[in-house]
Design goal:
- There is one protein chain.
- This protein is an alpha+beta fold.
- The protein folds into 2 domains: about 90 residues; about 180 residues, no CATH class.
- It has 11 helices and 5 strands; from the N terminus they run H-H-H-H-H-E-E-E-E-H-E-H-H-H-H-H.
- Strands 4-3-2-1-5 form a 5-stranded antiparallel β-sheet, with helices on one face.
- A hairpin with a 4-residue loop joins strand 3 and strand 4.
- Helix 1 packs antiparallel against helix 10.
């Protein structure tokens, strides 16, 4: 009897949690949809839909460089660097490399560009600068949103991160920017910095590279890391899926090992069939 009570407690707990997760999933979906609608409207006002990828990049950088006056937050610490409504509208966030890159990535994605963030690392794997990569003509070219520039060589050709490892190319790309830090080199970089996680002590990056070579290149992590609403949606969806699978497992266990459950849907269908079917009179 106590075993049955324990099962019932687990069953109702899982069902309640699953119902709550569905409510959260609906809210997260609506939130992400509203953010996407906001970004589409914003990008339509900044970028022409008929522009080439290079023109779209320059249009976004020009808006960041000389767009309308931005709001100055009284308390910048209350702003979210992963909320597009903050990163696109507050001067303090557009002046920081991480949140400025987030703003650029959100606008570039909404305008149809394939883009991702790139972390420049120090020798001890700490982030020293954040830039963006945009896929143009089969190449991932580097854009530095905080300095509002596309990294180009002396001939005006956009450069990739591999090309920027050449000191000559790097000097050509940054020569037009006064006081551009020479420390922002491209000798060490990553798309996801795992050093911030406690698991880094277990050499998580080496483990992932050995099991899934090129995992941070193949998978697009930028949307999870740059947009809080999308991350919440993904986590909520994953939790709902786990709870649904757990509910199925408990239901199977009850039907096969305990007393079969009362299946409301099946009985409803049988009742509806009996009600709608014309009885045969012999």
């Amino acid at each position: 009897m106590s075993y049955t009570r324990a099962f019932r407690a687990a069953w109702w707990t899982v069902n309640l949690l699953f119902a709550a997760s569905l409510v959260c999933l609906v809210y997260a979906t609506l939130r992400e949809w509203s953010v996407r609608q906001y970004l589409h409207g914003f990008s339509d006002a900044v970028v022409s839909a008929s522009a080439t990828p290079e023109q779209k990049i320059e249009a976004i950088l020009d808006w960041m460089r000389s767009g309308p006056a931005r709001t100055v937050a009284v308390r910048p610490d209350t702003l979210s660097p992963r909320d597009p409504e903050d990163t696109l509208n507050y001067r303090q966030l557009l002046a920081v490399c991480g949140s400025a890159t987030n703003a650029f990535l959100n606008l570039s994605r909404s305008s149809g560009l394939e883009s991702r963030r790139l972390l420049l690392l120090t020798a001890d794997h700490k982030t020293k600068h954040v830039v963006a990569e945009v896929f143009v003509d089969g190449r991932w070219v580097v854009v530095d949103p905080s300095f509002r520039i596309v990294m180009r060589d002396a001939s005006g050709r956009a450069l990739t991160r591999k090309e920027l490892q050449d000191p000559v190319k790097f000097s050509e790309a940054t020569s037009s920017v006064p006081n551009y830090p020479a420390a922002y080199s491209y000798d060490r970089y990553a798309h996801v910095r795992l050093a911030r996680l406690p698991l880094d002590g277990f050499h998580l990056r080496k483990l992932l590279e050995s099991t899934l070579p090129g995992w941070d290149e193949t998978l697009d992590w930028s949307l999870f890391l740059e947009r809080e609403s999308f991350l919440v949606l993904a986590i909520t969806a994953a939790i709902s899926l786990v709870l649904l699978m757990l509910r199925f497992a408990l239901a199977w266990y009850a039907d096969c090992r305990l007393v079969p459950r009362f299946h409301l849907r099946r009985h409803f269908l049988l009742a509806a069939s009996a009600f709608l079917t014309t009885p045969e009179i012999e």
